[in-house]
Amino acid sequence: MKKSADDFDFFDPEVIESPHEFYQVLRQQAPVYQLPGTNIFMLSRYEDVRRAAKDTATFSNDFMHVLKGPDPSPEAAEIYASGYEPVDTLLTMDPPRHKVYRSLINKVFSAKRVEKMRPYMEQIVDELIDAFIDRGECEFVHDFATPLPVYVIADQLGVPREDLRRIKAWSDAFASRLGGMASAVEEVENARLIVEYQHYMAKVVEDRRANPRDDMISDLVNIEIEDGRKMNMQEAISMIEQLLVAGNETTTSALSGGLLSLIQLSDQMHTLRDDPAMIDNAVEEILRLESPSAGLWRVVTRDTQINGISIPKDSLLMLRYASANRDERVFDDPEQMDVCRKNADDHIAFGYGTHFCPGAFLGRKEMQVAYTKLLQRLTNIRLAEGKNDLTHWPNVVLRGLKELHITFDPVDVTAA
What we know:
Distance between the termini: 57 Å
Strand content: 5-15%
Number of helices: 19
Shape: globular
CATH class: Mainly Alpha
Structural class: alpha+beta
Number of strands: 12
């Protein structure tokens, strides 16, 4: 029997784990779909998502209340009360105010500046590979895909590398809260970690104001943003938080998911080994297929319609990038990886419009350098037998593998 959209529960962990059949049904039967029993509407087609992303007057990014989630438990609320109240800055602000904060980030993440970072990224990638290559195996998420982007963003921010584990824990807590599927125990732990981050970063902000260095935090907290004023503490903490999460969670997920696809589709990996010039295009195809930012929220500011479907004011709209990037109207045979796909870079994995991800250049470059080095130094990459269940973290906004155990043979560079 042919399935309908109502045969799926979007919040069911099984659907979150394997969502692509649901997305396909939505695109075919209900491209503007109201999740039953909620005020949430989901867009699943490419053009609909792009149009909504550009219309910030109707579909606002002022969704701070969504990020906060439901009212926290008394225990979590008490913990949050000891920290800093979140404020709107980059992610949850609309034009023209959004431009005040966006202009600061654009300077930091310019394509020219990121390209100059390639040798530095290559050094980090080689160091990470050096640490596990002699073992012939590794847990790729932990040993490579996590530390690479965390090292890069931590170095750019000016946070000590020895705090890597804390940075990752803080980032995971933010991602968990954003994903809206935390258990009661996880909610309290998230609160503890988020407030810990706030107090840690408040000290760093105060230090960089008193003793500026050549790093991103110094630039952010000492520049005048408007009316001759600098960002206050809440604004600075919010901006740095967003850079921490956006600067590592999505790249980690794309790197891991992409390598898994290349292992499972060995012909695609052979194509890249035979023609390394295709790696840049392969990165776009991986971003299209993996869409680590699976979707983001918008708040509907006025009664409106999309494709004849009425959407009331104050509804929530979910722009489902992960579905849009597999839209049959845009991508031929969209469920399949094709590292030679001619329109792979038409994907919207980094969003679209005003809120296009400012770290896109950085994420792309990290992935390009990573896959280039991995294919140069490792061969016969395969899944470690009996160690992988290939499941993802439960999260309605982000999508990433929990673990990826691989084995491989080191490339004998002396043989050349």
